[in-house]
Amino acid sequence: MRFLETDGFARLLDELVRRGYDLVGPTVRDGAIVLERLGSPEELSRGVGERQEAGRYEVIRRSDERWFGFAHGPDSAKRFLFPPREVLGTATRDDGDLRFETAAPAERPFAFVGVRSCDLHAIAIQDRVFAADASYMARRRSAVFVAVNCETPGGTCFCASMGTGPRCSSGFDVALTEFDDGFVADAATGLGEELLSAAGARAASEDEVAADRAVSARATAAMGRTLETGDLPGLLYRNRTHPRWSQVGERCLACGNCTSVCPTCFCSDVVDAGDLLGTTATRTREWATCFSEEFSHIVGTDVRTARSTRYRQWLTHKFASWIDQFGTSGCVGCGRCITWCPVGIDVTEEIAAIRMQDGVVVVAEEGS
After folding, report:
1. Is residue 156 within 8 Å of 225, Cβ to Cβ?
2. Do 227 and 333 contact (CB within 8 A), yes or no?
3. Alpha-carbon distance 345 to 245, whole Å?
4. Dist CA 343 CA 328 (whole Å)
5. Residue 295 to residues 26, 105, 216, 290, 313, Cα–Cα distance (Å)
6. How far apart are CA 219 and CA 149, in angstroms?
7. What is the pLDDT of residues 139-172, one digit of tens each?
8. What is the DSSP letter of 293?
9. Cα–Cα distance, 263 to 150 (Å, whole number)
10. How many whole angstroms separate alpha carbon 149 and alpha carbon 252?
């Protein structure tokens, strides 16, 4: 373990810029802490925190000048590694000749600063989903991750229940635990070691290492939510007709906020469009949501016409059939879907309600 003084952190970021990385880090925009490309390390927000609860999010001012005194906002690395809208290729007609071009790769690799353990686990999940996707994997393999161990979980966080945090365990180059005078730092890769050396990190003392571990212990105890995870696939599979689905369907707006902020949701649609002159056509991949009725459109009909059945599909896929597909849960316990749901639907509450009445059966509704 190493210790990085406060001014050393700035040197670490400068080193990333010097090596040609495009810095992506947290800053405040439109009333939320979001990830943005940074023109310089000085654009990182300092002294800000947040309050999160079901359907509620608020940025607050802290009494100190820490860089990472919050859990996370609606953003994750997904927006950069798997963009919401990505041009896959274009076709151009010119004097009878037809020319096809694939999208050019990004010029500069990303250096993500301030990502949390839940997001690192989410990236590992998406790596399985997009293992054969060349554009995703090119961005992923070139990226650098300067992660942060959480000290202050959000009110909707339950990563401790999912085994994905709050302490970073894998997927990072450098992991930091922030204190008033600097950071306890851990390097997991050769590049991480080089970055810490270039930033002037020294060996951490026993007291500093103990303080670092204490931060993670306090964060684990301060989770805003908990979830019993035993036999989740079996629980959800055998409760397909549970009355709770209808109850949550009455509240759900089918807006898709939960899938947009989820760091693992990967559904997309491919859209072809041409210009009015018929000379150029573009193929674009765009995020999609399983909460839209047309998402279930198959052979002239919609197979999930009720919001309750679309919510059931999403939650069951996330916590059950995802395991069948990819060998891991599709949830990392970040709680974003709870915070950013306009009506405050809480996955931990819904699963707990089904578990309390395990095996209750009702007649399946139309659109099931």
Report:
1. yes
2. yes
3. 12
4. 28
5. 32, 29, 41, 6, 12
6. 9
7. 999 999 999 999 999 999 999 999 999 999 999 9
8. G
9. 17
10. 33
Residue 187 zone, left/alpha/beta (φ > 0; ψ -120 to 50; rest): beta
Q: What phi, psi does 211 have (nearest 5°)?
A: -65, -35
323-341 b/e with 16+ CB inside 10 Å = b?
Answer: eeebeebbbbbbbbbbbbb
**Which residues does 89 contact at the CB level (< 8 Å), separation at least 6?**
100, 101, 102, 103, 282, 283
**336 contacts 74 by C-beta, under 8 angstroms:** yes
Tokens in use for 71? 């859990």
Residue type, 174: V
Contact 176, 195 (CB under 8 A): no
The model's pLDDT over 211-230, given as tens digits with 9 standing for 90+, comes to 999 999 999 999 999 999 99
Element (H, E) at 27: strand 22-29
> Which whole number is the average pLDDT over 65-87?
95
**CA neighbor of 24 nearest in space, from 139, 127, 137, 114:** 114
Q: Do 254 and 292 contact (CB within 8 A), yes or no? A: yes
271-327 pLDDT, tens digit each: 999 888 888 999 999 999 999 888 877 777 777 889 999 999 999 999 999 999 888
∠ CA 65-70-71, rounded to 5°: 155
Is the CB of residue 291 less than 8 Å from the CB of residue 314?
A: yes
- Rounded Cα distance between 11 and 2, Å, is 15
* H helix intervals, the chain: 6-18, 78-81, 117-129, 134-142, 159-162, 190-198, 206-221, 232-237, 244-251, 257-261, 307-316, 322-326, 336-339, 347-356
